[in-house]
Each structure stands twice: as structure tokens, then as C-alpha cells.
Amino acid sequence: MRPEDIDWGNLDFNYRQTDYSFVSMYRDGKWDDGELTKDHNITMNECACVLQYSQSCFEGLKAYHTKDGKVVCFRPDANAKRMHDSCERLEMPPFPEDKWVEAVEKVVKANEAWVPPFGSGATLYIRPYMFGYNPVIGVKPADEYMFRILVTPVGPYFKGALKPVEVTIPDFDRAAPHGTGGIKAGLNYAMSLHPIMEAHRHGFNENMYLDPATRTKIEETGGANVIFIKDNGKTLVTPLSDSILPSITRRSLCYIAENMLGMKVEHRVVYLNEVEDNEFDEMGLCGTAAVISPVGRINNHGKITNFKSGMDEMGPTLTKLRSTLTGIQSGEIADPDNWVHEIK
Ligand SMILES: *Cc1c(COP(=O)(O)O)cnc(C)c1O
């Protein structure tokens, strides 16, 4: 499929091969310069560290057109930094952060025809990832690594993005205390596949994980951070825990709440109790793909918590937060802190 054949307004969230990917190899203790490639398949040894011991991490961000025709992406320096942290935790050699952002620019420019038109709701999803490449059988980190960036055009993550979802409390845990929950490791997703399929089989959209030690505190869903609104829209509350992945969307929304909307932001432990006692009026899931998707209801083994905002639409405060962030992204609202990164 070519870009000119795509119906941008009805694009789904599936992989589509584009023209170029970026690839760089780490060998003999250093990264090479990297290059664009048209080869979208990878050949490696059957005993590659990533295949045996899952030594891999990734990032996700998006490029899109602004109203005035520029191609931009959102806070790529924050993704570069986060991938650096992921690499260190997995004993992988970080790709230098400035080169990381340059590589993103390069691969987006090379695939400019695949950047969806302004206003279509679609974006060019950018997926940087790194993995242990050479054969390893005794358990140890690889010596050689591949860093790649693939790009693929996607529509909104949730069809009808603003429709509230229903989440459930799974009987499974996401990330152990002092484990890998705070980094973007592929292994965090491998373990979430069974719980999410179970949730779907029971009719729920997402799992909201609790802290494994006490199972009383809210952590996050499989792929999105959680925010709550209370005090008639005056306060935003977001859970604090080392095993929550530091979402760039969530951090941006907290900044907007505090510095642009005059709200109070509380980053603290949030107990499931508080939520089930209806302390909060609105709940949202945040991540790059959906920005915010509203939660209308929690079903904890039959114990139902309904949010004031209900199952029909997003509540007023999340709506304001979301439109401010998307307004900054599209260039319609002044950028508070060099978040929008011009590529072309
Ligand atoms: C990627 C991710 C998020 C969202 O992070 P963003 O930077 O906002 O896209 C949230 N939770 C988990 C577990 C993730 O992997």
C-alpha cells in the first residue's frame, strides 16, 4: 500500500510497512553511525539474547502535521532520556540522546509521504527499539545490539477515542516492587498479554493493576498511566510508585494542570479504597496513543464504581486537559516549554 491509497480518516492502529527504517549496530564497544534501510526484516542467530532472554526495550512517539504544514513530533528528548534509563536497567548500551533525536528526525523526513495530513486524527507512529543481538546461552547481557526505528501510520488508538471505557481489577500483577515497571521493557508487555485477553473475554477494555505487595494501591493499566480529578475540577491526582512507567503524556498533563489551568496537582499514593469510596469525579488513562481516554466505570470482581462523568462522554476537566494538550501539539495553543519539535 502507498500513502496516496490510505483513507486517513479511517485508519486503524495496525502496522503498515513504510519506505525506510533507521538501523544502527553496537559492536566492539561502540555504536556505528547508523543508516536508513529499506529492509524491514531482521536476520539474526537463533540464540540471539533477545530471543532467549528478552533483552529489549522500546519507545513510542508520534509525528504529525501542524496547521501551517510543518512536520513535528512531541518531546522526543524525553523519549530519548527514558530509553537511556531503560537501557541502563537492562545492561544495554544507551544510544547517545542527541543522536537518538537526530535519528528520529532522519527517519521521519525519509518517510514524509507517510505523515498523515493535518486534521485527519491519524499520526505517524514512531517506534524506536533496541535488543541484544548476538548469541548468548549462559545468562548474561549481549555484546552486540541493534537499535532500530520503524515508523508506521496509525489512526486513533481507541476507535471513537472519547468514549469512556470500563476497566477491571485483574488477579494478576504488572510489575514487582523494585522490578522493571518503571522502564519501557518488552518483557512488561509479554506478561500483560494473558491478563488483557482475560479482561477482554470478560467484556472489559483494560486492566487497572494494583501494587503487588499489598494490592491496595493503584498503579496503572498495561500501557497507560492513570489520572483522577476531584474537587469540582480543581485537583488532579496521579498515583506515585516506582513501578509506574513515567508517561510523558501524564507528565505533560500535570504541567498543564498546574501551570496553565490553575489546578492543584497531587502526585501521591492512591488507594483503591479512595476510588471505590467515590472520592474522584473523573478518571482518565493517558499515553501517547490515546492522549486521554476516559474511564466511566471500574468493575472489581462485581463491585462497581461509577464515575460522575458516566459512560457516555468524557468529563469536563479531562476534556479541558485533553484539548489543551492537543492544542499545544497542533500549534493552536502556545507551547509552554519547547515541547513541539520541528522536523521539517
Ligand atoms: C508507554 C507507556 C505509557 C505511556 O507513556 P507515554 O510516554 O505517555 O506514551 C504508560 N504506561 C506504560 C506501561 C507504558 O509502557
What does this structure look like?
There is one protein chain. The model has no long low-confidence stretch (mean pLDDT 96). Helix 2 packs across helix 3 and helix 6 crosses helix 8. Strand 12 (235-239), helix 6 and strand 13 form a beta-alpha-beta unit. The strands form two sheets. Strands 1, 2, 3, 4, 5, 6, 7, 8 and 17 form a nine-stranded antiparallel β-sheet that branches. Strands 9, 10, 11, 12, 13, 14, 15 and 16 form an eight-stranded mixed β-sheet that branches. By secondary structure, the protein is of the alpha+beta class. The two termini are 24 Å apart. It has helices at 49-53, 76-89, 97-110, 186-190, 193-201, 248-259, 272-276, 316-330, and strands at residues 21-27, 30-31, 35-37, 56-58, 61-65, 71-74, 123-132, 145-154, 165-168, 206-207, 225-230, 235-239, 264-268, 282-287, 291-300, 303-306, 340-342. It is globular, with a radius of gyration of 20 Å. The chain has two domains: 3-154, Aminotransferase class 4, branched-chain amino acid transferase, N-terminal domain (D-amino Acid Aminotransferase, Chain A, domain 1, 2-Layer Sandwich), CATH 3.30.470; 165-330, D-amino Acid Aminotransferase, subunit A, domain 2 (D-amino Acid Aminotransferase, Chain A, domain 2), CATH 3.20.10. It binds pyridoxal-5'-phosphate. The site of pyridoxal-5'-phosphate (PLP) has 14 residues, from helix 6 and strand 14.
